[in-house]
Amino acid sequence: SEIIKICNLKSSVEGQQILKGIDLDIKAGEIHVIMGPNGAGKSTLANVLMGHPAHKVDTGEVTFMGKDLLTMKVDERAKAGLFLSFQYPEEVPGVTVENFLRTAKKEVAGIMPMALSFKKELHSKMEMLNMDSKYLERYLNQGFSGGEKKKNEILQMAVLNPKLAILDETDSGLDIDAIRVVYESVQKLSKADNAILVITHYNKILNYITPDYVHVLVDGKIVRSGDVTLAEEIESKGYEKREW
Ligand code: ADP
Ligand code: MG
Ligand code: MG
User: Fold this and answer.
1) What's the pTM value of the predicted model, to 2 decimals?
2) CATH number at residue 128
3) What's the domain range around 191?
4) Residue 168 CA: which ligand 1 atom is closest?
5) ipTM score of the complex?
6) Per the structure, how many domains does the chain have?
7) Ligand 1 center to residue 10 CA distance, Å?
8) Mean pLDDT by 10 residues, the chain (244 residues)
């Protein structure tokens, strides 16, 4: 079944069109990877889907879980099951990871999860993520390494159980061990009833996740789609000076 369908999506920021007609269909059970050079519009696509106010939708339609996504408010999008790795705050003094996650779960689910069962759930998910449970007592992101922040985002994803998780890999300086743990976890969180969209320019994540589709985004358009071999082709030839 269909999770999201994007048709001819064009968007502008500060009067300049960045997305120039994106078409993308993602079905339940699928993992999609979007690759592309810097400035292509990858993060813009994620931001537009989440409803970031800086981005104006010029034209196009997005259907998410059968509903018109573009008319939904940001919190409605999250409640409908859209998750963006970077929608969460950087540092929150005085709020522990555990409390933050419990509140985030309440906002999406509508009811506050029971403290004890929620703690149990967190512990099992942290074990999968290879995270020390002492982090639950720490203040959100305060003094966390890049790898710890990233694991936290994946923990949030695990807790919120979204229909579509969009993971924008900006340029995170993750070491290879953190990349492995994070993407092995992402792969484990891929289920028959959800979908995952990973935005990256790192081929090495493909050692840990198995995407069903790889798309190449250049200058605001998806210029090619294929399977994982497309990523290998890019690895060897690069994005520049290519006839797509
Ligand atoms: P990518 O993630 O593919 O590297 P981005 O989507 O971040 O690319 O950026 C695409 C283009 O849109 C860039 O030229 C960038 O400067 C511009 N852009 C993105 N967000 C904003 C913004 N909030 N204000 C101004 N320009 C922006
Ligand atoms: Mg699959
Ligand atoms: Mg980006």
Assistant:
1) 0.93
2) 3.40.50.300
3) 2-237
4) 2
5) 0.95
6) 1
7) 14
8) 98 97 98 94 96 96 98 93 76 85 91 94 89 86 81 91 90 76 91 96 86 96 94 82 64
